[in-house]
Amino acid sequence: MNPLLQSTLQHLEALVGFDTRNPPREIGTGGIFDYIRAQLPGFEVTVTDYGAGAVTLHAVRGQPKRLFNVHLDTVPDSPHWSADPHVLRVVGDRAIGLGACDIKGAAAALIAVANVTDGPMAMLFSTDEEANDARCIAGFLRAKHDYDAIIVAEPTKGEAVLAHRGIHSVLMRFAGHAGHASGEQKPSDSALHQAVRWGDAALDFAAAQSHERFGGLTGLRFNIGRIDGGIKANMIAPTTEVRFGFRPLPTMDPDRMLETLRTLVEPAPAEFTETFRGDSLPAGDTATAEARRLAARDLADELEIPVGNAVDFWTEAALFSAAGYTAFVYGPGDIAQAHTADEWVALDQLQHYAATLHGLVARGHA
Q1: How far, in Å, are 135, 180, 194 from residue 234 at the CA level?
Q2: Does residue 132 surpass a pLDDT of 80?
Q3: Residues with catalytic annotation?
């Protein structure tokens, strides 16, 4: 086995063994961070706790131009795993374990490369990507950092992804008037009826965006995730809560969409709160976003990383882009294997990713 791949798998075995599921995000400054810190002699290491299990480790050696970012938190495991998700298994051409694909495999490769090179290098490990409570990157960006670009690790099959959708999550509450269901109702009486009418209009609105295009992506991704309300069949529902999300293309105006969705039906919801916002990549108005996309493409070309298509999933590269950094997404693995039972990453992709990182650091391009 290739020595760099072997080292990567050894670190991946250790990283998978740490429980960093999010939720519950019961992650402290020890544990996995003690392990990483111990693997990085020669680096200046800063660990910051932002509370509620949101922790970063910033490791710097020399004066690097680029920062590699990778999140260590994983989704919860499902009951359909065929073995312990926190024990790495190497079977055939794949490494299987919770987070192996998304995205501890990249973290393991970064550590392996750090140990066999001595050139300038910077890494940011974080723990809050998998839930709508982003603290790590926001906290990191409150200070000025002298990096030309940020390369964010996510499963992109070894291609540089320059663009992806944004993500927005919303909590709505409808208010009605409790009463006996035998009488004639006005549109505003039942909060549950209001929510159902809104849902019908919202699905029609989303379908009407199917003609929109950007970089190989089409339409608006929209999902009503939860509806809670009502008491029983013969009672008019006084309150109903709706949670929904949508993922716009980079060319779509999310604020205009939010206002449209808020006012789709009468009466409008009594409460309409955006609970999470993630900009699309690249972030900014049309001119700014295009300039940032071109800068990211030029960087990928300089680093000899092949450029792939835009993707539907969201990444924290958008947060760095919104802060003014050139940013793209690059990592081993396929998003189709992420968040699944018996999650896996292909060994050849891990090896290629590690070899690419090794070349960048060794040539002083990191």
Answers
A1: 45, 6, 17
A2: no
A3: 129
What does residue 183 show for φ and ψ, rounded to 5 degrees?
A: -90, 170
What is d(CA 309, CA 323) in angstroms, rounded to the nearest whole number? Answer: 23
State whether residue 169 is helix, strand or coil.
Answer: strand
CA dihedral 32, 136, 45, 362 (to 10 degrees): 90
**Which phi-psi region, left, alpha or beta, contains residue 329 (left: φ > 0; alpha: ψ -120 to 50)?**
beta
What number is the average pLDDT over the span 135-162?
Answer: 97
Q: Are 260 and 201 in contact (CB under 8 A)?
A: no
Mean pLDDT of all residues belonging to the chain: 96
Strands 94-96 and 89-91: antiparallel
For the entire predicted model, the pTM comes to 0.91
User: Of 247, 278, 309, which residue constitutes the final position of a domain?
Assistant: 278
Choose one of 219, 252, 278: the last residue of a domain.
278
Q: Which amino acid is at 356?
A: T
pLDDT at position 285: 86
Q: How far apart are CA 337 and CA 293, in angstroms?
A: 27
Residues 6 or more apart in contact with residue 275 via CB below 8 angstroms: 132, 169, 170, 171, 243
Number of CB atoms found within 10 A of residue 317's CB: 30
Residues 37 and 145 occupy one common structural domain:
yes
Q: Indicate whether 35 and 134 sit together in one domain.
A: yes
Residues 290 and 346 in one domain: yes
Residue 216 has pLDDT above 90, yes or no: no
Token pair listed for 36: 């990483």
Q: What is the DSSP letter of 268?
A: P
CATH, residue 270:
3.30.70.360
